[in-house]
Amino acid sequence: MSDSSRAARRLAAFIAGAGATHFLAPWPYDAIVPSRLPGKARTWTYLSGAAELAVAAAVAHPKTRRKGALAAAALFAAVFPANVKMARDWRHRALPLRAVVYGRLPVQAPLIAWALLVARNADKGVSER
Q1: pLDDT tens-digit profile of 75-124?
Q2: Nearest partner of 117 among 77, 59, 63, judged by Cα
Q3: Spatial distance between the Cα atoms of 86 and 105, rounded to a whole number of angstroms
Q4: Could you give the CA distance from residue 10 to residue 5 in angstroms, rounded to a whole number?
Q5: Most buried of the four, 9, 105, 110, 121, by CB within 10 Å?
Q6: Do residues 56 and 19 make contact, with C-beta atoms less than 8 angstroms apart?
Q7: CB-based burial label for 99 (10 Å; 0-12, 13-18, 19+)
Q8: Of 90, 108, 107, whose CA–CA distance to 32 is shortest?
Q9: How many CB atoms lie within 10 A of CB 60?
């Protein structure tokens, strides 16, 4: 298995794990859904979890990997406002909790870069098969 294929599989597993938590433990996600979105927070939690699972499946499959990885980059960028909301909402919590939520903010950039790298290398993985 090539390095690009391994990176893609790891990215797919990471996204699938995050998507699954939207269904297994939805309440933390409900709390960070921006209030300006219409409907119930739980609906957005489930929709975002389903989107993450779909993106993970696309990244895992070599024929859809490039588009899936680009979708992953877009998804990582799209959830950034929710992470900012969580950081703002938790600004008065205990320091360890604040450290976790503030620490998530700069992590978005490397996640986007990882997804873009997988997208860029997607064709290499297909040609090596």
Answers
A1: 999 888 888 888 898 899 899 888 988 988 999 999 999 999 999 999 77
A2: 59
A3: 10
A4: 9
A5: 121
A6: yes
A7: exposed
A8: 90
A9: 17
What is the rounded average pLDDT of the residues 7-24? Answer: 97
Dihedral of CA atoms 101, 83, 92, 37 in degrees, nearest 10, equals -160
Q: Reduce the secondary structure of 6-48 to three states and give it as a string.
A: HHHHHHHHHHHHHHHHHHHCCHHHHHHCCCCCCCCHHHHHHHH
Q: Please name the amino acid found at residue 11.
A: L
Residues 6+ apart with CB under 8 A from 99: none
Token pair in block for residue 60 = 């895992």
- Chain position carrying tokens 């699972």: 53
Q: Map tokens 């391994």 to a residue.
A: 6
* Secondary element (H or E) of residue 2: none
* Cα–Cα distance measured from residue 114 to residue 112, given in angstroms and rounded to the nearest whole number: 5
Backbone CA torsion sign across 49, 50, 55, 59: positive
Q: Calculate the CA 121 to chain-centre distance.
A: 19
**How many of the other CB atoms lie within 10 Å of CB of 126?**
14
Global pTM value: 0.84
